[in-house]
Amino acid sequence: MIRYIIFSLLAYALIVPAEASELPLFNNGHIKTFFSLNTFPDDSVFRDQVDTPSTDISGDLRLNFKWDKSPVSLFADYQLTASHGDSITIANAFAGSPVIAGVIPNDDNRLFDLTHIVSRDNNQIIAHRLDRLYADITGQNLVVRFGRQAISWGNGLMYSPMDLFNPFDPSAIDTEYKTGDDMLYGQLLQDNGNDLQTVWVIRRDNNHHVNDKNGSIAIKYHGFFGDNEFDILISEHYEDTIIGVGSIVNLGGAIWRGDITLTDTQTQNVTSLVTSLSYSWLGWGHNISGIIEYFHNGFGQSNSNYSPAALTGNPDLLKRLERGELFTLGQNYIAASATIEMTPLWILTPNIFININDDSIFAQLVSTYDLKQEWQLHAAMGIPMGKAGTEFGGIDSAITGKQLSTELNLYAQLSWYF
């Protein structure tokens, strides 16, 4: 299977760009290849499923199409993905666990099923899908879009409690394309630069029926006061009522950002917030941009107990983990990042994520290098640290003496844009 994927990607690289350029309405595209390696400690439950180190290889072809006749535009982004490796075996073994992320986005609860699994077994999957499919009507002060699209809200740079729709994992390496939802989106632009955005996300229940209880309706106002910005959010998200406020403020040469949300889950009121300070400077002959961010996850475990029994007692947290809205189990985190321009073509980014409550840490080093005008290489190394039972050290599994834990994580991604 690995040989098949490599051969297919080489064929894509030689044939697809030339053929795609002849397709009607073709706009642009890319081919990405991924390789990852993970090692596991002796007490890791993952070693019951795969050997250590585990390896994965994947390929992703994306073709973006656009038709434009003002004021109407149509967008369609086709995606073909092939993956082979141990992470699929692990995902299949722990399909009922929200801690184990899926390999392919699932359209079961979206309005449109635009994903088709071509082939799948215990350690490989091939799928193709329409990652974007929407119509855009643009006026002088009004934008209306309907279909599969993505939207990002909030001012958090790593954690974002105001970003309700498929936020990125704070440690994600590739954040170029966000998973979309089927929605009706509108934006009203004001002459003073302020704008009002509205979203209606339409979803299906587990019986494949469109259900208001699974949908989302949200409105956000973005405005300016002097050189600063603010956001006000009101939303009915699934069955929760969410109110949020956020701001971006210039503090001399630094920028302060922050969001706070209050969620009424019908059983409790939950407050989450993120606040960060970013600053850019010239150090050791390099341009550097630094960030330090604090995140309070109101849905997290206050006692740092992440055992299956304890998590079962926190259904509000589990629902958000399953929906991909949260990626943290605890309540309080400090994250720091620095973007260092080593050369005009090479960016080095060390990141660190600290669970304040259980003293566990995830350290990450990301390298981004522009090989040529249309080629880019990402490489990353991640090391989780902490005692057994902690979030990054390895939370307890349902098997006595076994943890959901990893050691060294290595990642490489080669991208070609055409």
Q: Could you give a short description of this structure?
A:
By secondary structure, this protein is mostly beta strands. The chain has a single domain, classed as Porin.
Through-space gap between termini: 26 Å
CATH superfamily: Porin
What is the fold named in CATH at topology level? Porin
Main β-sheet description? 18 strands, antiparallel, barrel
Strand content: over 45%
Helix vs. strand class: mainly beta
Please identify the top-level CATH class.
Mainly Beta
The run of helices and strands is HEEEHEEEEEEEEEEEHHEEEEEEE
The number of distinct helices, counting runs of at least 4 residues, comes to 4
Task: Choose one word for the global shape.
Answer: globular
For the residues shown, what is the average pLDDT?
92
According to DSSP, the number of beta strands is 21
**Number of domain modules:** 1
Please compute the radius of gyration using only Cα atoms. 22 Å
Low-confidence stretches: none
CATH architecture level-2 label: Beta Barrel
